[in-house]
Amino acid sequence: MLSLLSFTALMAGIASAAPAAKREMSPDGVYFPLPNGFPNPSQDALLQIQLDADGTLPNGPPPPSLSPEGATNLKLIALNELFEVAFFNELVYNVTNKVHGYDLGYGHEYVMDALKAITAQEELHALNANGALKHFNQQPIEPCKYAFPVTDFQSAMALAATFTDVVLGTLQDVNEEFAKNGDFGLVRAVSSVIGNEGEQEGFFRLVQKKRPSAQPFLTTSVRDFAFTAIQSFVIPGSCPNINTIPLRTFKGLTLLSANIKPATQNLKFSFVQADSNTNDYSTLSLVYINQQNTPVVKALQNVVVENGNVVFEAAFPYDEFVMDGLTIAAVTKGAGPFASADEVAAATEFGPGLIEFD
Ligand SMILES: *[C@@H]1O[C@H](CO)[C@@H](O)[C@H](O)[C@H]1NC(C)=O
For residue 146, with 0-12 CB atoms within 10 Å meaning exposed, 13-18 middle and 19 or more buried, which class applies? Predict the structure, then answer.
């Protein structure tokens, strides 16, 4: 069970307790350019990335045209893959150097081999998206500065599993947007990336001693939720051209419940009172997106305002819908009903809260 925002809060606490933990690979959150020149590798460096990735960039011609929504898809993919490249390069660095919390002992070689391939594969995903943007005369997305709220291997794997689940849901939305806008020539390549990310997810789950496959139909997401979630790893103001991505950034929703067991129960959330457009909290709802099911709408209960935060509970109907894997929570204006995750995003004020079970 984790939420990116509560991760950040947790690590803020740990950082103040142990201010000495200095990041070695990425002083001040600067990861790029990598030693291999990425995001602008030379031709030789690209050949090495392809060897490390066990495969090449697609070498066929791109489709003849790209819709505006299709361009937004590629920009979001590039933004996401750049942050993943930063994360996995640092993870490889930490495990290679047996940084405190990353000394694996048994299994070191297999994990290193897997992580190096994943890192190179993510580099190719980013280069492919930015390459397509350049081909269509769009600005490629530039990397930001990042800070990751993890200092040990198990938390790094839990975080990777969560953001990869968000990607696995969001690429469903990306493919639907491509299809709706006539960009069918990009659906096959993105679908091949969904499979790759799913294989990675199985590995992240395995090293956490979870079953490799989480759900029969993976939880869907919407581009705006991924766009917001990625920014929780970004040092604010450090993305040179994130403003060229026409997606929404939601205000934060914090999941206050901790160590949640997969069971029907009330969950506790909060948001910043000043971020709200209303004082009548009965006009808001808490909505859950899980699997390919119709979003579940619940009322805000026991609402109190504490130290500038609006704190509330909402029923979590685990048993009724068998809500394993990733659940995306959002506070919406109104109670729907919402026929789809898109309709939830269109009405969202606060989110996404990320809930993840075995
Ligand atoms: C690598 O280790 C440093 C030092 O503990 C930590 O700050 C950073 O978040 C770690 N990165 C990853 C991706 O695990």
Answer: buried
Q: What is the pLDDT of residue 57?
A: 98
The span from the first CA to the last CA of the chain, in angstroms, equals 9
Residue 150 Cβ contacting ligand 1 at under 6 Å: yes
Ligand 1 near 148 CB (within 6 A): yes
pLDDT of residue 24: 72
Whole-prediction pTM value? 0.93
| Region of residue 107 (phi > 0: left; psi between -120 and 50: alpha; otherwise: beta) | left
Distance of CA 195 to the CA centre of its chain: 16
Whose Cα sits closest to atom 10 in ligand 1? Answer: 151
pLDDT of residue 1: 43
Distance 52 CA to ligand 1 centre (A): 22
Ligand 1 contact, 151 CB (< 6 A): yes
Check pocket membership of 21 for ligand 1, CB cut-off 6 A.
yes
Ligand 1 atom at minimum distance from 156 CA: 14
Site of tokens 């993305």: 239
For residue 240, give every residue at least 6 positions away whose Cβ sits within 8 Å of its Cβ, in sequence order, or none: 142, 144
Per-run averaged pLDDT (10 residues), the chain, 358 residues: 42 36 77 97 98 97 96 98 98 96 91 98 98 97 98 97 98 98 97 98 96 97 98 98 98 95 97 97 98 98 98 98 97 98 98 92
The atom of ligand 1 lying closest to the CA of 155 is 14
Ligand 1 atom closest to Cα of residue 93? 1
Provide the pLDDT for residue 23.
Answer: 53
Q: What is the pLDDT of residue 20?
A: 38
Q: Domains along the chain?
A: 4-244 (no CATH), 254-357 (2.60.40.10)
Which ligand 1 atom lies nearest to the CA of residue 94?
Answer: 1
Ligand 1 pocket member 91 (CB < 6 A)? yes
